[in-house]
Amino acid sequence: MPIDPVIEPALLPRLYQGTFAVPAEAIDENGHVNNVVYVQWMQEFATRHSDALGLTRAKYVELGGCWVVRAHRITYLQPALPGDRLTVATWVATMDRFRSLRRYRFVRSADGQMLATAETDWVYVTIAAGRPSTIPAAVANAFVVLPEADEP
Predict the structure, then answer these.
(1) Which end of the chain is more exposed for a tag (fewer CB within 10 A), N or C?
(2) What pLDDT, in 10s, does the model give residues 56-75?
């Protein structure tokens, strides 16, 4: 589900943030944003953050590796509803030899209410073999790890 967020590039490289309106197709039979859509938004914002730092799909292919998801965790606090504008922030919380933990915050822009928190455990793998690989310095150094004390 593509979105067209308004990005705040001044926050890069530590934090990637954007604001967008909840599209009608994100709403499920319960009248709020479907849980699967949050996962799609997480993927979208992670990709856009990487792209904004110059780590595009083409760059990863050149490096011979890519990120794959090991696990997603989402805590839903309040529903996102039709017409809501959301501000989503994402950042890298940890970066080790093979893995990186990325966190997300979903906030309703109108009243500042936190709607959900989430994180994705990513593993860096070789494209050819699909096996875990050491994260190249070009990748690890592009992302600034945001310490927990500085998280939004």
Answers:
(1) N
(2) 999 999 999 999 999 999 99
CA 106/CA 114 separation, integer angstroms: 6
Count of residues in the chain: 152
Q: Which residues pair with 105 in a beta bridge?
A: 89, 117
Taking the CA atoms of 71, 25, 56 and 129 in sequence, report the sign of the dihedral they define: positive
Taking alpha carbons only, the member of 21, 36, 34, 48 closest to residue 102 is 48
CA gap 11, 151 in Å, rounded:
12
82 prior amide bond cis, ω within 30: no
For 41, the 3-state DSSP assignment is: helix
For the stretch 95-150, pLDDT in tens is 999 999 999 999 999 999 999 999 999 999 999 999 999 999 999 999 999 988 88
- Collapsed DSSP state (helix, strand, coil) of residue 59: helix
Residue 42, both tokens = 């997480």
Helix H or strand E segment including 58: helix 57-63
Q: Which domains does the chain have, with CATH numbers?
A: 6-145 (3.10.129.10)
